[in-house]
Amino acid sequence: MKRYILSFIICVLTFTSGFAQNAKHAFRVYGFIPYAGYFQNGQPKAASFNVMQQYLATLGISKYNLIYESRIANFPDGNKTHGVIDTPRLQGFAKLASLEPEVLVALDLEGWNRFDTVNTTRKLIDAVNTFKAINKQSPVGFYATVPQDTYGNPKDTVLCNKLNKAYANVAAVVDYFSPSLYNYRGAGRDEWKKEVLYNVAACKKYGYPQKKIIPYITPEITINGHTELLNYDEMLYRLNTLYELGVDGCLLWTSSGTRDADGKRPFVNEDEGWLKAVKDFIRQHKS
Q: Nearest 5 degrees, angle CA 192-CA 37-CA 65?
């Protein structure tokens, strides 16, 4: 009898665990889309980055404050691995961000040698502390740092397991985790989902359940040096997968250097393709 009771309890726990993971929850889509503009009434409308942010907000896409290392670091000898934080400039960005304390701040500091787990982790922590000395309200995270980027290569997970452990002190100071889930291996689903599962688990291994998991995703795919964009189904699959895994949102990113087949900067269109998938997803999960 005890054996049957135990089996029943295990079944209930398994079911409720799966239900909790897939239950309706808050999921916020953030966007950094420096494209040429957007379509309005079937016609392309040029827009500055700020105007693009306002337009995306009408679709339910929140902005985030992405700060590239070129804006907050100096490179005395031209070598990015030897870059040093420009403290006054970083403090200036921190002060500016304090005007919108609810907006996520994402520091992109990829130039340092990630394998130097002593000096690089120290410099990353110093960057966060410098920011927070001026602004303690804005949530701060790093692009693809905790956990480390696998670049879509399953073989890198062994290496990244070691690096992620070495970066535990960095995980302690950020306010949220944002692994990179770009389309390193094209638009395919299986390889991308393996990347997702690994990175979400890596975030949870740090042991900070109160810190949100907000991965980077992109509609862009690079094939033989040419940029293509995800279609509706490909983007919707990515959003649904993240939602079903219980993460808290995603950071949509596109490159300012992206060009279409004619060599021109693209325009977004909310009525088709990847952006329509984002719009439909947000509408479906609007609380």
A: 60
